[in-house]
Amino acid sequence: MLNETLMGTAIYWFRRDLRLRDNTALLAAAASGSPILPVYVLDEPDLGAGSRWWLHQSLARLDESLRKHGVPLYLLSGSAGTALSQLARRTGATSLYYTKRYEPRSRCQEQDLQTRLAGELQIFACDDSSMTDHNDVLTQSDRPFRIFTPYWKKATASPEPAQPQPAPRALAVARHELGSLRLDDLELPSDSSVSYANLHDTWLPGEAGASQSLDRLESVLVDYSSHRDRPDLDATSRLSPHLHFGEVSARQVWHAANDYRTQPESLPGVAAFLRQLYWRDFSSYLLFHFPDIAKKPLRPEFSYFPWSENSSGLSDWKHGRTGFPIVDAGMRQLVSTGWMHNRVRMIVASFLVKDLTLPWQEGAAWFNETLVDADLANNSASWQWVAGCGTDAAPFFRIFNPVLQGTKFDPQGYYVRRWLPELAVVANENIHQPWRDRAFMSGSIDYPEPVVDHAVARQEALTRHRQMRELFSLVEYGQS
C-alpha cells in the first residue's frame, strides 16, 4: 500500500548508467529533494550471454552501493513503458529521471513513456551517454558526418567534456510497499557457449571494477600508441564493458586520461587513447543518425553482395577451428573471456567476410551473443567498417592476410600459444602457419588444416565484389 505521507516520489530509471558517480540525471533527482525510488527494468530481449552475465553482476553491485544510502534497487521486467507508467501511478510519483540512450529500441521506449505519461508527471531526460550532443556535431550544411576525421575535428573543437561530478552525498528514500523482483528472478545468466567461470576470473563488473581499470590507465598510456595493436601484451585499458554498462562515464575516462598530458612520456599515448574514445562516440553518433546500420549496409550497393552459404565455415570460425592461429586464438579468447583484443577483432572480422565471404551480420550477431561489451553501436559500425560497407569504411580490397597479421602483431606467438596450447611445440617461425612445422606434418598436433587457401579466397572475394558492383549498376541505373 502507498504511504500517503510520501507523495511526490521521484522515480529514477537506471539504464546503461549503472553508477552513482558522475551521473547527471541521478544528481538532478537527488538535488530535487524528492524521495527517490531507483528502478531497473529488464526490457532488452536481444541481450547476449556475455552481456546477461555482466548485467547480473553489475546490478548486484549497484544495489549494494544504493543500500549504503538506505535505498534498495527496485527490479522489474517486461515493457519499460508499461512497467514505469504503472509504477508511477501506484506510487503517486510526480517526476521521472533517466539518461537517454541512442539505440532505436531505446528511443522507442522513451517515446512510449512520453506518450503514456504526458501531463501526469515531469520527465527529466539527460544526455549523458557520450562526450558531445549528437545533434550538435554536424557539417556546415547541418547534416551528420559520415567520415570520422572531420567529425573528430568538429567534436574536439567544442569545449572539453565537463568535469566529472561526485556521487550524491545523500539520497532521500521513497518507502513504498511494492515488492521488487529478486535479481535471480530476472534469470540473466543462462546456459551458453560462454564460460561463466572464466568470466568471473577475468572481470570485476560494477563501479568499483571500473575504478580499478581507471587506476591502471597511467601504466597503459605510457606505451599505448606503440603497443595498443599488440594482443600479446597487456596494453589496453579494458574499460569497454564498464563504459558500455555505464559503470563509468566517458567524461570520467576522458579526464582520467587527459590528466596525464603533463607527463611527456605519456603524451603520444594520451592522444591515441582519446582519439579511440572519440571513435566510440562516433559509433554512437552513427547509430543515432543512421539507425538502420545494425541491420543494413550503409552503402546500398552492398545489399547486392553475393554472400556464401557456408554453415560449416561459420561454425569453424565461431569455435576457433579455421586453421589460422591468430583467428582461432581470438575466437577462443572471445568464448572464454567474453572479450577480444581490438586488433584481433579486425582480423577475425576480415576473415569471416573476405576469406569465408559470409555476411557481416552473422559475425555481428555472434559478437553480440558472446561479448561482455556487446555495444550495438560499436559492434554494428565496426563490422560495417571491416566489411567495407559502412561510413568511413576500409576499402573492400583491404583484405587482411591472417599469417602476416599474426606475424606482425604477435611476433613471438605468445598470444596464440596462450589460447591454442596445442601449438606450444611449434617453432616461432611457424607459429602463424603451423602446417609448415615438422610437428604438424608428423601428425602429433591436434590442430586443423586451414579451411581456405587465403590467396584463392582473396581472389574469390574480389570477384564477388565486382559482381556486386555490376549487379548494383544494372539494378539501380539500368547499366551493364
* Number of alpha- plus pi-helical segments: 21
Helix-strand string: EHEHEHEHEHHHHHHHHHHHHHHHHH
Radius of gyration: 24 Å
| Estimated structural class | mainly alpha
Compute the average pLDDT: 93
What CATH first level of the largest domain would be assigned?
Mainly Alpha
- Give the terminus-to-terminus CA distance: 72 Å
- Largest beta-sheet characterization: 5 strands, parallel
- Total strands: the figure is 5
CATH homologous superfamily descriptor of the largest domain:
DNA Cyclobutane Dipyrimidine Photolyase, subunit A, domain 3
> Helix content range of the residues, please?
40-55%
Based on the structure given, which CATH architecture of the largest domain is correct? Orthogonal Bundle
What shape does the CA trace take? globular
List the uncertain runs: 1-7
Which strand order do you get reading across the main beta sheet?
3-2-1-4-5
Query: How much β-strand is present in the residues?
Result: 5-15%
CATH topology of the largest domain: DNA Cyclobutane Dipyrimidine Photolyase, subunit A, domain 3
What's the structural domain tally? 3
Summarize the helices and strands and which ones pair or pack.
Blueprint: E1 10-14, H1 24-31, E2 36-42, H2 49-67, E3 74-77, H3 80-91, E4 95-99, H4 104-117, E5 122-126, H5 148-157, H6 196-202, H7 207-215, H8 217-222, H9 224-227, H10 240-244, H11 250-258, H12 267-289, H13 311-318, H14 325-337, H15 342-355, H16 360-370, H17 376-387, H18 402-409, H19 414-419, H20 438-441, H21 454-477
Parallel strand pairs: 1-2, 1-4, 2-3, 4-5
Helix pairs in contact: 3-4, 5-12, 11-12, 12-17, 14-15, 15-17, 16-17
